[in-house]
Amino acid sequence: MSKYEYIDSLRNDPANTNPVTSMCRWLQVSTSGFYHWRSRPQSATGARREQLAKRIVFFFEESEGVYGYRRIHADLRAEAIECSPELVRQIMKDEGLVPCQVRPYKVTTTPDLHGAEEVPDLVERDFTADRPGIKFVGDITYIRTSWIPAIVATRDLQDFQ
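-> C-alpha cells emitted (161 positions)
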C-alpha cells in the first residue's frame, strides 16, 4: 500500500479526525501530490488487475474456497487469459482469499473381531464403583467430529452429561 493509499483510507475512516494536510506532513508527502494521485485515471495495469481479480474471485467461489493459486491459474489459462501464477497468488492475497484444502478421510482404526473375542470382560460391563481407584476403564475409539456442526456437537455433548 502506498502512502497515498494509506492517507486515502484514513481520510474515509469516520473515526479519523486528522486533516489531509497533517497526514501528508507526517508521511512526508506533498498535499498537492496526494490530490493529483486521487484525480489520475486508473492505469492500464490497475484496470487489468481489477478484471483479473473478478475472475479469480469467481473461480475461488465456484470451488467453494478450495482452489489455490495454481488451480485458479490453470482455469485462467484454460480461458486463454495470460497471467503468471505469482500474479494470481498476489491478487488472491490482496483479496483475502485463503484456500481451505479438504484432506481425505483416513481410517485410523479398524475393528478386530478376533482380538475383541479374546479379551475377557473383567468388569462384566458394570462401570460403576463405590469409591475412586477401584475400576480403571477407557475407550480409545476414534470418532471423527471435524465435520459435525458446532450446534449438533454441543447438543450431543449435552445428551451425554
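Residues 3-39 form one domain.
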